[in-house]
Amino acid sequence: MLDAVQPDRYLIDSQNRHVTSKTVVGGSGADVSTLKSAKPVAAKPVAATPVTVKPLAARPVPAKSAAAANKSAKPVQAKPVTAKTVYLTFDDGPSGLTGEVLDILNTYKIKGTFFVLGQQAERRPEIIGRIHEEGHAIGNHTYDHNYTELYHKFTAFWNQIKQTEEIIRLITGERPQLVRAPGGTAGKFDAAYFDLLEQGGYKVFDWNVDSGDSKRKGVPADEIVKMSTAPHQGNEAVVLLHDGAGHEETVKALPRIIKYYQKVGYRFDILTPEIKPVQFKVQIEPKKGQPGSVWIAEHVTVNAALFRQGNHLEVDMNGLAAIFRSGEYRMENGKLLVPLRSAVERLGGRVNWDASNRTAKVWLGGRSWTADPFMGTIQSGKSQARQVPEIGMTGHTTWIPLREVLQLSGHPLKAIVSKGNAYKIQTL
Ligand SMILES: [Zn+2]
User: What's the topology of domain 82-306?
Assistant: First the structure.
């Protein structure tokens, strides 16, 4: 599973391959109709007695929130234009080493991007769940990494992308939109591979810093550190690393790589579909066996709708705005559901998952409470746990009614207003 890399052949062509931002179209049916009828709705009296509103501590917005907010073109924190950013990317996992990689990223409080193989995700769904839960990005690295199969014709590549996407969606509830070609695109993608993946709604990311950890078996940590910290073009470093089996030296090198980028003033972030991708130039002639127009229409053209943006959901709570893109929230039986951890973190709180009790302990708005997605209960303060049937797990993610999150934090929902392409949730 080594990516045969020959860095000198790579030319970066970020200009030509600039991906224009997606057109925002009306939201998907169910959400819109339900919410539109609720436009400015008088708040249901949530609490009979006025709730004392405890101001939230002015915590810095966690990295994920900032990234998410930028995605939605609603900056919470302006980033300096000249900021240097490093994106650590890990290919070929999850493996028995991925847990160690996640521990290291946690130690340094940074996030990374994992381009996973469908085959490995099937073997280790719990690690995929953990990557997702801890706020890292997950990208698609095909199902089995087999060059012969993947690069003889586009339809074969596409089928593996879709197969892997489905495996990940069943675990996390989200479709990965980022794609990394096994071995990189250079010498492997013809123009059609690039064009059709883009048409299908995917964002293909190569890299501009190669750690060299897959050049041969057992590249020593020292060499990986040296290659990973080599100069690169521009202000953004996209570093290629591997967390597949046999990459113990990469794990060993990782803390030193992180410390280097911290020392020279980089911020760490995850790749998102909105970032202009680093892509190598097309180096090969069109392959034989190009897909026909009917196949393209049936597979690729309709696929893009899966990633098209519907309406944002914007929650204003005591001066903090949390934004959920369509797909990051959902309606069920007239209730707005959000992923517990990302909702709480974006609102300035934190969540600890208690693996032995399988409950989530939440601190938000100066209060704390416990959600049990398996029992479907919430317990707050000294009171008895109460049933909230909508709480549950999708894959490894806990989903919860937004109304509960707001109420339990002391900022009950006041109104939902439809404004432009966003639904605004106002709280007391
Ligand atoms: Zn790979």
Answer: TIM Barrel (3.20.20)
pLDDT, one tens digit per residue, over 188-245 is 999 999 999 999 999 999 999 999 999 999 999 999 999 999 999 999 999 999 999 9
Domain ranges, ordered by start, for the chain: 29-65+309-427, 82-306
Q: Which ranges of 173-292 does DSSP label H, i.e. alpha helix?
A: 191-199, 221-228, 248-263
CA of 211 to the centre of ligand 1 (A): 13
Query: What's the 168 CA to ligand 1 centre distance in angstroms?
Result: 17
Q: Which residues surround ligand 1, an ion (CB under 5 A)?
A: 3, 91-92, 182
Report the percentage of the chain scoring pLDDT > 90: 59
As separate numbers, helices (DSSP H) first and strands (DSSP E) second, the chain gives: 14, 21
What does the mean pLDDT of the chain come to?
82
- Kindly report the CATH class assigned to 29-65+309-427: alpha beta
- Rounded to the nearest angstrom, the distance between the alpha carbon of 3 and the centre of ligand 1 is 5
Q: Do 238 and 89 form a contact (C-beta atoms < 8 A)?
A: yes
Tell me: pLDDT of 358 over 70: yes
ω into 94 cis (within 30 of 0): yes
Closest CA to 280 of 12, 89, 9, 5: 12
pLDDT at 8: 31
Highest mean pLDDT among 3-17, 49-63, 140-154, 305-319: 140-154
- The residues annotated with a catalytic role in the active site are 91, 242
Per-residue pLDDT at 360 exceeds 70: yes
DSSP category for residue 81: T
How far is 360 from 353, CA to CA, in rounded Å?
5
Beta bridge partner(s), residue 386: 378
Question: DSSP string of 128-156?
Answer: HHHHHHTT-EEEE--SS--HHHHTT-HHH
Between the CA of 226 and the centroid of ligand 1 the distance, in Å, is 20
